[in-house]
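Reproducibility note. Readers wishing to regenerate the assembly model reported in the main text can use the exact inputs given here. Chain order matters: entities are listed in the order in which they were concatenated for prediction.
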Amino acid sequence: MIDIFKDKTKLAEAFCEELLLLSANRDKVFLALSGGSTPKIVFQTLVKDYKSKINWNKIHLFWGDERCVPPDDEESNFGMTKKFLLDSISIPEENIHRIRGENNPDAEAKRYSEEIVKYVPLKKGIPSFDIVMLGIGEDGHTASIFPNQMQLLNSDNFCEVAVHPQSGQKRVTLTGRVINNAKEVIFLVTGKNKSQIIKKILVKKSRKFPAEFIQPVEGNLKYFIDSEASELLGKE
Ligand code: 6PG
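Running the prediction on these inputs yields the following structure tokens for the assembly.
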């Protein structure tokens, strides 16, 4: 399903409504957050309009990927979430399951897989998140599954170490099998700079980009796209 929103604030509100609805109907919600900059507007909207509407005791926060840097590094996905969300809501410490970017990457990929299995319900032996929030890079990567590391889509492991193709920065990422085992995957895509990749993925279906291979086995797949990122849809 593809939803087009006038602007990123409307897109963020739609995501927040989904989370509110889900949390109203569940004892626990297992949510994997994406990194990068797009989620910032979602976090700001959650703080501004949903802070007291959502029962944060029910929400367990995980990350779809993390840069292998300390949590206070400006590159840290956890650090960004802490700044724009966690520092402004009352969520139990034990509900925050960050990837420890300061650890040895291989050891952390293993440790984080074990933490996920400890909390997230399994479906057919694979952790099944209620919602996996994802972004898409201009190169079509998602989480930290890059076009030159497509094997991470089908890894038997729940988490793997990835390497950013340009910077060489190591990352810990959920693998495609876990992402595709979610009850719902929601891509959040905003900005003019994403219009080309959105067209390649949703119109041309070139099957060259990791994001194209995210298709929940049984769950829902949703694209939340703002008007700028969707401007090439419907155009030859
Ligand atoms: C990361 C992300 C990555 C991100 C995309 C989009 O750690 O960088 O998880 O997959 O979602 O690169 O990033 P923007 O939201 O900054 O465009």
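We highlight two features of this model. The longest strand covers residues 220-226. Residues 34-38, 64-65, 77, 135-137, 141-144 surround 6-phosphogluconic acid (CB under 6 Å).
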